[in-house]
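User: Show me sequence and structure for the first protein, then do the same for the second.

Assistant: Starting with the first protein.
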Amino acid sequence: MYQKTTLIKNAKIVNEGKIVNGDILIEGEYIAKIAESISPKSADVNVFDAEGQYVLPGAIDDQVHFREPGLTHKANIETESRAAIAGGITSFIEMPNTNPQTTTVEALNDKFDRASKTAWANYSFMFGGTNDNLDEILKIDKKDVAGLKLFLGSSTGNMLVDNPEVLEKIFKSTDLLISVHCEDEATIKANLEIYKERYGDDIPVHFHPIIRSEDACYISSSKAIELAKKTGARLHVFHLSTGKETQLFDNKTPLKDKKITAEVCIHHLWFSDKDYENKGTLIKWNPAVKTEKDRDQLLKALLDDKIDVIATDHAPHTFEEKSNVYTKAPSGGPLVQHALPALLEMYHDGDISIEKIVEKFCHNPAILFEIEKRGFIKEGYYADLVMVNLNNPWTVNKDNILYKCGWSPFEGTTFKSRITHTFVNGGLAYKNFKFYDTRYAKRLTFDRD
């Protein structure tokens, strides 16, 4: 049950480029009032004293893989959405490469049904495109889903869209926002053969960013952008991993008017190729973590607004799966619990401001996907709120990792900042590693004509 009224006192409220001291009154699911000082009008009000801690809008993660249905030995909607709210992520958009793949209306509706019963964070899904499902794509109402996901490289099953005629037809035919994974498959295959000839299956993992190279990324992303410009499609390029690709994007247009946008993921902002020596296949992602120079250029493009949003690409596998030799170890790793603490660590290091973190991880996903009444701390908006203590250190270890897979690439890392409270639609869902019995999650809705 929702508290009838909740009052957060003495908060540092981070919203729209400003930090203000004040109080937040929540009535039911919504933020009713924001003011310098609000007094409770009755004894029924549930009062939280933030004691000067920061309150942020709940983060919106526009790219996760929660593995349900079909791959639930790795993860499921319930376990990973719980980990998400512990990490300050109150809304997620999940990808279509499950089993069955989300490439039919029936499979999409099944996912919505599953999430309605088990999700701890607000949810929506991407619909998947293939070489042969245009008829299904055209059935989708753009108010029903977050968007369309196309794999232009590195996909499971038959989700690689590698027919140029089909690709152009999809771009021309849909009003859905098209999100793409861009790596050129021919380039990767040629590179892989060179190293397989030399090492067999046990390729040293530090060759991963050479196999899944800068060229592979740039060839694919530049082609996708060229096609979007030709057709007028609305394109969002997922998980940039190279500095070179950032040159393809514009920072002269307000986000709400952009037709071509970009995302960077936390692992490409945190790790570099120097970390393969210690982390091995645990940091094997597609696209690959690349050089320190790439990492620095990605951060610069994020701060310069060429890159519009931050996401996780949360993609868990079991530790046993990740422990295989290079060619057998799957790419991807779990991140939703630790992405915001990692970004706050970057704030402590002077790399990014808290206001910019909120812009890229909260505001901009809401603007980009036209999500209704979320991503901001505003009166009349849903009360998705995260309280953080910037000076309460904790170390990531097996006892506090919440992912079903039980491991994290951040294991052993000490973060200075801790998520202390997470409110989802006005309900307190999480407090200091404790979850409450009630789930408050709702299906995301979209303000689209």
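Switching to the second protein now.
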Amino acid sequence: MAEKTINPLLKSGLEYGPIVAFFAAYLLLKDRVFTFGGAEYEGFIAVTAGFVPLLVLSTLALWRLTGHLSKMQVVTLVLVVVFGGLSVWLNDDRFFKMKPTLIYLLFGGALGIGLLRGQSYLEPLMEAHLPLNKQGWMVLTKRLTAFFFGLAALNELIWRTQSTEAWVYFKTFGLTAAVFLFFMSQGAVFRKYGITKEGDQG
């Protein structure tokens, strides 16, 4: 089913609103401790407990309005529910902090499998936005695969060696900025392998 067009601001709000809400709630509640059912929960766990259903609702709303969810959105939602739920249930923040690692390993692994088969699994997902020839897609996919594995390793390093607050800042701003900078740095690939409507120019 073709994706329906909705207000760009609404779409962005549904996609990024839960992340902004998580960050704001963490800043407000990070030093508080909540008692529930005789157990004490730190602010991070309480915020995670609120983030999981919020992401579920926003993703369902996005699907309802657009009639479409990307594979990345579906995988992210499943991992947030599973690992966020485990963090809350077991009162252990490590599960939620490992979630980005698994996401990037899954995406990097999927792209890597495609490369081993001589294919770019990135092409059908982004070809409408990035007009590249076949060689260009293979180059970009190789670089993105390595980039995803690098982000997975970096997330492990940060959450295992830094404070929870440092990890929250890294997750909210660092990872987002890293993805943006990656694509900004690929200008040479887009110029060399880009195609026009008249045909391949790479």
